[in-house]
Write a structure and sequence with these properties.
Layout (H helix, E strand, L loop, with lengths): L4 H12 L17 E7 L5 H4 L6 H6 L9 E2 L5 E2 L4 H8 L3 E8 L7 H10 L11 H8 L6 E3 L15 E2 L10 H13 L3 H15 L11 H12 L7 E6 L14 H20 L6 E7 L19 E6 L8 E2 L20 E2 H13 L3 H7 L10 H4 L3
Parallel strand pairs: 1-7, 1-8, 4-10, 4-11, 5-6, 5-7
Antiparallel strand pairs: 2-3, 4-9, 8-9
Helix pairs in contact: 1-8, 7-8, 9-10
């Protein structure tokens, strides 16, 4: 396929440069509210991260995966002992969990599940936009999205002019080179490419040697918080944490699944530190393609399952709580006799979150973003008005 200079530059510019924001300030009496999504890629094990307390069925099925020193959240559920930053938010009524939930996808393909968790659709690869991008477009928040990864995730597609923040290994082009390129586009009346060069120029202004920083999620989260707190900064940020597909060596408290949970926990920590007082107007939530089997396998790991859980953080939460219509872990209660069952459509949580942060009617989001699917409005249950 022949690629034009115009399409090449438009498609590759955000992948080549370090993102910055310099959006116009819009007068508004309402406080700026932020939404952060953390993609947990590989299928996060909710029974490992938020186990049900004293369940004999779980203990019998996971004899080598039961953790010591769990953090008790309420009478029914506990928290993984390494999720200290999340628990700190919990103690300040800024953390919640929705348990036994999943997108309406009951098969076990990572590729199909990851496509559907980001698109919010029913059939893999049939929707080319993300539920978050469509929600932002509905809220007229074009250009207010920030992806802390490359390339731009499907989740944010559906609205224009979103940006990536991913530290460059080399400094951006200097001002003189950018001015030459911009003047070239003016001569050829290519206004869209001139606009792209203006964006790159803004990025160059905020880049210096000290910003050739680490690409780890802790560093990215701290930088994202500093951008989100700006009145003219982004309203939405998206992270990705890998490594949850632990078919083997999931092990105990120091296992590989724990490593990924700690990485997620550090994003909550660094966002809280960087946002400061603006954490009160921020909502953080997680997204994963499916859960993992209730029973451990012979490799001391778990296989692809069905239901998982959603972690929520920030000052827009009503209170700290574990919200669940718990299905139970007896064989008769499991999905296909092997997996934690899903009793809450995860898209209900995401639609309610967008309704709260974007100040949009839930029914409008349900109809325009999720095609009128039967979703439950959890706004009043989970979030502040």
């Amino acid at each position: 396929m022949k690629i034009s200079r115009r399409n090449f530059l438009k498609g590759s510019a955000t992948a080549l440069f370090l993102a910055g924001f310099n959006l116009p300030v819009i007068a508004n009496t309402k406080p700026k509210k932020n939404l952060v999504v953390i993609i947990l890629k590989g299928a996060m094990d909710s029974l490992y991260a938020i186990p049900v307390i004293g369940d004999k069925d779980l203990e019998e099925r996971r004899q080598d995966l039961i953790l010591d020193n769990l953090i008790k959240l309420d009478t029914d559920f506990a928290l993984h002992p390494k999720l200290n930053s999340f628990y700190n938010l919990w103690k300040h009524n800024q953390a919640s969990i929705v348990h036994a939930t999943n997108i309406p996808y009951s098969k076990r393909s990572h590729f199909d599940g990851q496509d559907l968790m980001q698109s919010g659709g029913h059939i893999p690869y049939s929707v080319k936009t993300g539920w978050l991008g469509r929600g932002m477009n509905l809220a007229k928040l074009n250009g207010h999205g920030l992806a802390l990864q490359l390339p731009m995730p499907l989740l944010l597609r559906g609205t224009s002019n979103n940006n990536n923040f991913y530290p460059a290994k080399k400094k951006l082009p200097d001002k003189e080179i950018l001015e030459i390129l911009k003047s070239h586009y003016k001569e050829h009346d290519e206004s869209d490419l001139e606009e792209m060069m203006n964006i790159i120029s803004q990025r160059s202004m905020m880049t210096n040697d000290s910003m050739l920083m680490s690409r780890d999620n802790s560093s990215l989260a701290f930088k994202a918080g500093s951008e989100l707190k700006k009145i003219n900064g982004p309203r939405v940020a998206v992270f990705q944490v890998n490594g949850f597909d632990t078919h083997a060596a999931q092990s105990g408290v120091d296992g590989t699944h724990t490593d990924s949970l700690i990485e997620m926990d550090n994003i909550f920590k660094k966002l809280n530190e960087s946002l400061g007082n603006d954490m009160k107007n921020t909502l953080i939530l997680t997204l994963t393609e499916f859960g993992r089997t209730v029973t451990q396998n012979s490799g001391l790991g778990t296989d692809h399952g069905y239901a998982s859980a959603i972690f929520l953080g920030g000052g827009l939460l009503k209170k700290s709580q574990v919200h669940s219509d718990w299905p139970g872990l007896k064989t008769k209660d499991l999905f296909q006799g092997r997996d934690l069952n899903s009793t809450i459509d995860a898209r209900s949580v995401y639609a309610s979150a967008m309704s709260t942060v974007f100040d949009l009617d839930f029914e409008l989001i349900k109809n325009e973003v999720f095609w009128g699917d039967k979703l439950q409005d959890l706004s009043n249950t989970l979030f502040k008005a």
